[in-house]
Amino acid sequence: MKFLLLIIPLLLQAVTFKVASYNVENLFDLHFSGNEYVEYIPDGKYGWNRYIYQKKIDNVSKVIYDLKADIIALEEVESLSALLDLRKNLKRRGLFYRYYAIADKKNSTVKVAILSRFKIIKEKELRVAYSNRYRDILEVHVDIDGYPLVLFANHWKSKSAPESERIKYAKVLKKRIATIPKSLPYIILGDFNSNYNEYITFLKESRLNDTNGKTGINHILNTTINGKMATFDDVRRDCSLLYNLWLELPITLRYSYIYHGEKDTIDNMLLPCSMFDNSGVDYIRNSFNVFKPAYLFKNGSIYRWQRRGGYGKFSGYGYSDHLPIYAFFTTDDKHSEFSKEKEVKYHEVSISSLYEKKELGSTLLIKKAAVIYKDKSGVIVKKLNDRAIYIYRHNKIFNKGYYYDIYVNGIKTYRQNKEIVSIKDATKLGKIKDINKYYLHYKKGMDLSKKIYQNEVIYTLRGIYKKRYLYYDKEKKIRLYSKIKRFHLQDGTKLSIKKARIMWYKNESEIVLYYKYQIKG
Q1: pLDDT by residue (tens digit) across 7-21?
Q2: CA nearest neighbour of 289 among 340, 334, 249
Q3: DSSP codes, 464-513
Q4: Residue 44: which domain range?
Q5: How many CA atoms lie within 13 Å of 11's alpha carbon, on the beta-carbon side?
């Protein structure tokens, strides 16, 4: 019995922890090395000085502090000096990373690094090529309370270069992975400058495809099988495959980077079968996500590190052009499967029923809603024999002229108009054959002043303009509100309004004009 009492305190306690990756967009120090981008030459013409440097450190530190990952891989860190200044700032905020590593054996302009609250017991750099144009891959071995974990932090060549350049990184990783025990859990993470489904997306640009359709992330690292992405079950059956965690998010939510309006998944986390064997460190299923608090966005775009006018001096505002990604892991073999995919049934509702609700207690489903209108701020959806409603701010998800199943998380009454303000997901179903039947077709005697017509899209309405109102059917009138520049009309002008939104404002209906094609006089 005494022997057992001595052993019990030595038993390992299960631990759950968070791993993240964040491209911090050019965290340079204040020391001139001659290898900086021209904008980051200390005290140069772009204003990279002590004040701006501190602002950059503060801004990046805020994101990492709010993210609160236990281990975080960082991309685009110039030096150990910059990494230590960031670490010091985080410690002042109350988040202390005792352990750190950076791939600085090569004098590349920017490097990958890792901050960890768990002990780093070994680190090495995987050389991709001798040229400084290729950043080394950082391999770090971490002790998770007695359990081993390996991380491979990456920052592959950008898409200014063809795919053959990124394949070099994948081959180095592939060769290294082949030498480690199959039971050893590891995470491959970082900025790959490759989408999770790069084998499809890179075909859009012929200049990238110099490899006859082969990609580093998909074909060399084996995240695909039989021409499709390798699923969780595929990887469990075949340990030569890797599982890309982007597959666990709805398609509409898969992005951590936006380039020319296109949402990309160039930041990735790849896992082997050893992460799903209920032994040692395991991945907690469906815990992968993108960290995107409201402050990381501005005007619908990622609020990147700012320069005045886009090309001038640094302003000290903004964060990064990437969003952090993260996932949870555990050493509890009972816990790793806790969120195994379950079939979730959502309550289907009509659009009309949303007008009767002040708030939603759960996610609701609108099936086969037609997107019939789109402006700079949102879209209008409608179902036949039902009402129309405006979806605010999610216009980049939707294409006009298509049906969607829409999973609604939140609604709001804004200036007397009911709007959907939050959605969980939207599944694109197919093209609308006859969109015109979803518009509101005016018939003689119809009274557009009724509130039931709010958010409808009027197909055609003719009348005479007088003092900001359109008079139709002789005595009936509806207010016109225009967002068209230099919109001036003389009283008495005959007008035809087409495909414009009807809103409710100050207890009165009005037609909102966004585009010149909506009005003919």
Answers
A1: 333 445 688 999 999
A2: 249
A3: EEETTEEEETTTEEEEEEE-STT----TT-EEEEEEEEEEE-SSSEEEEE
A4: 18-330
A5: 9
**Residue 51 belongs to a domain:** yes
Euclidean distance between CA atoms 285 and 277, whole angstroms: 12
Determine phi and psi for 31, rounding to 5 degrees: -105, 130
Amino acid identity, position 58: D
Confidence of residue 468 (pLDDT cuts 50, 70, 90): confident
Q: What share of the chain is helix, strand, coil (3-state, %, to 5)?
A: 20, 35, 45
Q: What share of the chain in percent tops pLDDT 70?
A: 94
pLDDT at 128: 96
Tell me whether residue 9 is in a domain: no
What's 253's DSSP letter? G
Q: Tokens 């949870």 correspond to what residue? A: 328
Residue 78, amino acid: E
Quickly tell me which residue has 């200014």 as its tokens. 160
Tell me how far apart the alpha carbons of residues 205 and 295 are, in angstroms, rounded to a whole number: 33
Same domain, 53 and 147: yes
Residue 360 pLDDT exceeds 70: yes
- Condensed to tens digits (0 to 9), the pLDDT of residues 116-131 reads 999 999 999 999 999 9
The pTM score is: 0.67
Three-state SS at 171: helix
Rg of the chain on CA atoms, in Å:
28
d(CA 372, CA 382): 7
Which residues, including other chains, have CB under 8 Å from residue 260's CB and lie 6 or more apart? none
Six-digit token pair at 26?
A: 């050019």
CATH at residue 385: 2.40.50.140
Buried b vs exposed e over 94-115: b needs ≥16 C-beta within 10 Å?
Answer: ebebebbbbbbebebbbbbbbb
Q: Which of 409, 437, 465 is the last residue of a domain?
A: 437
30-44, 327-341, 345-359, 446-460: which range is least confident on average? 327-341
Query: Hey, is 13 helix, strand or coil?
Result: coil
Cβ neighbors of 131 (< 8 A, separation 6 or more) are: none
| Residue 279 shares a structural domain with residue 417 | no
User: What's the number of domains the chain is made of?
Assistant: 3
Backbone angles phi, psi at 66, to 5 degrees: -70, -30
pLDDT band at 334 (very low <50, low <70, confident <90, very high): low
Q: Over the chain, what is the mean pLDDT?
A: 90
CATH number at residue 29: 3.60.10.10
Q: Which two tokens stand for residue 462?
A: 């003719």
Residues 385 and 493 in one domain: no
Residue 411 parent element (H or E): strand 402-414
Determine the Cα–Cα distance for residues 294 and 291; give it in Å rounded to an integer: 10
